Amino acid sequence: MAVSKSTLSIVFIVLGGLAVLFGTVLVFVGPIIIDDQIVKNVEINPNNGLSYTMWKDIPVPFFMSVYFFHIVNPDEILKGEKPTVVQRGPYVYRENRWKDNITFHDNHTVSYKEFRQYFFEESMSVGDESDVVTIPNILVLGASVMMENMPFPVRLLLSTTFKTFNEGPFLTKPVGELMWGYDSKLVDFLNKYLPGMLPTSGKFGLFAEFNNSNTGQFTVFTGQDDIRKVHMVDSWNGLKSVDYWRSEECNMINGTAGQMWPPFMTKESTMPFYSPDACRSMELVYQRPGVSRGVPVYHFVAPKTLFANGADYPPNEGFCPCRQSGLLNVSTCRHNSPVFISHPHFFEADPVLLDTVNGLSPNEDEHGLFIDIHPETGVPMNVSIRLQLNLYSRSTVSNICVQTGKIAEVVMPMIWFEESGYIDGPVLNTFRTSLVVLPMVMEYMQYIFIALGLAGILGAVMLYVNDKVHGLLRLFSMFEYFTYNIFCFRACMFV
Question: Where do transmembrane segments lie in this chain (predicted)?
Answer without folding.
Answer: 12-34, 444-465
